[in-house]
């Protein structure tokens, strides 16, 4: 059968991938996640720092698309160009796991909100497992039907999910009461009364905020499917600006509509905010808008998750050759099947080893919220390596061309990601274990080429496996808690 042209995505589908991947669960849960660790003034300051860093990354991606249009594997290609083929493999592997944990976080948060309306999902973790599994394989079948079909569905879902967010942002502006928000830079958290330094309030929200922007590279990752290279850069820049405005309005003003303590306790933070303005209808409206949002983001992220190892296998074969296999509709079928299979296995293990069968057990933090927060934190740390290497490549190319602006943007992005590694040290330890598991795939890669692994790679994985063993022992002893 003759293969279709793989360049099937125009500007609108690319923009939908970017906005669809960025606007997921992070924005809906951000009022609670951020109010738990910071007051409104420090939240706004942290958004300014994170927004500047992520905008710098978006500008760096735009620059790389223009300077290196032939690198169509997205951030994998940039990492390989910056630090060599082995670094490219690890970046692709880490990004693949980052996207995979993003998908898992979305499954948990969808079940959490639906549990308000479907009691079985609020009582049984195995009902959550069955529901998430059905959703996973249903989306995999949709993607397998062809990128054009999946792209059109994603455009429709993205448009639907932006409406309730815009309404929530408008409600937050109109109903905002400064007196309710209190001192925006207080050293005591409004949500709990616990003391918190300026540094802790700034740093604690970074993981949530970076996760909220993850997906900004979506158009870059699937750039090989774009009709025009220029559309990739435009979709990245415009998608960032649209989401930044919504994020800042919603998360910083929510505390002036509903008390911070109430937001933190809510299972649907933005629903609570809109419920203050419109009552029960407002809450229901936001909850179902949230579901559209996450379902759209899930489709975007499944596309990105399957495309990453496929691109890495196609470009100089850094992944085993089977990952390069595509259908007659340009779908990376083997990579999609492996991604869905691994996601299914991780979902099963998380449900098996979670401590409470009752998600809404009184006196305990909700099980799904804990699983969600852990998944997004691991996702962020795994993505920092390819983000950092992409920024370093942008800086190197800009310096060689004596272009001052791109050097500044790449430097700002690099500084943010270095800060993030320090601020999320616990989850960096978890990422060590994930990166160490890449040794098996790398060994398969060398066997296919009938060549022994280089000594440098053997030493790298030996050190990584030893560090991972230490991490697992500390976790087992309760010295490290996620």
Give the topology, please.
Blueprint: H1 11-22, H2 25-35, H3 40-67, H4 75-83, H5 85-114, H6 119-123, H7 125-144, H8 147-175, H9 178-181, H10 198-204, H11 206-213, H12 218-221, H13 229-253, H14 260-265, H15 269-278, H16 280-314, H17 333-353, H18 367-400, H19 404-423, H20 425-436, H21 438-448, H22 455-476
Helix pairs in contact: 1-8, 1-13, 1-16, 2-11, 2-13, 3-10, 3-11, 3-13, 3-18, 3-19, 4-5, 4-18, 5-16, 5-17, 5-18, 7-17, 8-13, 8-15, 8-16, 11-18, 15-16, 16-17, 18-19, 18-20, 20-22
**Helicity range of the residues?**
over 70%
Strand proportion: under 5%
Task: Please compute the radius of gyration using only Cα atoms.
Answer: 22 Å
Spell out the CATH superfamily.
Answer: Amino acid/polyamine transporter I
Which class best fits the helix and strand makeup?
mainly alpha
